[in-house]
Amino acid sequence: MTPGQHAVHPDGHSKAKHSRTDPARRKPPSTQPNPEPSARVIAIANQKGGVGKTTTAINLSAALALEGYRVLLVDADPQANATTGVGIPLQELSLHLYHCFISEVAPREVVRPTAVDGLDILPSHTDLVGVEVEFVDRAERERLLQRTLNTLRPHYHFIFIDCAPSLGILTINALVAAHSVLIPVQCEYFALEGLGKLLETIRLVRQSLNPDLVIEGLLPTMYDTRLLLSRQVLEELRYHFGDLVFQTVIHRNTRLAEAPSHGKPICLYDKHSRGARDYAAVAREFLARLAQYEKAQSSSP
Length: 301
Ligand SMILES: Nc1ncnc2c1ncn2[C@@H]1O[C@H](COP(=O)(O)OP(=O)(O)OP(=O)(O)O)[C@@H](O)[C@H]1O
Ligand SMILES: [Mg+2]
Known about the structure:
The structure is a single chain. This protein is of the alpha/beta class. It has a single domain (36-299), classed as Rossmann fold (3-Layer(aba) Sandwich), CATH 3.40.50.300. It is built from twelve helices and seven strands. It has a seven-stranded mixed beta sheet, with helices on both faces. The longest helix has 26 residues, at 274-299. 48% of the residues are buried. Residues 1-33 have low confidence and may be disordered. The structure holds adenosine-5'-triphosphate and magnesium ion. Magnesium ion binds next to helix 1.
């Protein structure tokens, strides 16, 4: 997809919501699947480190769960920041994504609920780092995550994959498994550095492994209204990528940085903070873009 094009939203998602009181929402995924949802899978990727991937993965997932959607957060980074960020200590983890890859266990047994109603996590662990070398000769090693998620998709409306800061095999797995990729971009010096390489990787994945992959959007993060630099970076992003850039920007907010050490998404840690309001706004914009696409689809002959 070229810059300026709108993200395409394939039919893999049902918009129907569950009410907050619907008891089905609290069923663990290992019980009765709801036949209605078939999750849209979104990879959150940028090989540049520290740009807000994990913060976005946790807080956008949580914001959508608060809207009544069933959401799975997949931690595909051996740093396991999304896992600890929703309150799961790594020392207590006996099962994680690696065990799904080696087919030792059904993915539904690895999924854990979080403190946010409607949000589950498929946790990661530092052991996942072995995948890069261990699976080097394995056939279809780019489809490990896709196979894992296929069994989980019927249980959710959205699956978000938090990627590692690399374009290695784990990120390729995420791009192969996903319908779309959401790219957080930090409003700092060198923000656009490396984006070309990421877009090229996305293009190559589309060519060979996942022709339907689209760009969901670029999300400006850590925006500081007081800094001319932040405004300049945002302008530059909009100039190069047009409507692909989310209208909502995530402001720099210390509460967002504090929340993971308390093992909580921002909506539980400080629901009145700027960060909580920003991620709630991104969730609404994300849903509005999806609705717009579905409307266009239904009105086209
Ligand atoms: N909007 C924000 N305001 C303030 N701090 C933020 C914000 N977003 C993220 N941070 C902080 O910046 C750091 C990097 O964020 P995060 O871990 O989300 O980035 P990442 O892209 O996932 O990093 P990595 O590439 O290492 O996986 C973290 O300490 C996080 O708490
Ligand atoms: Mg991260």
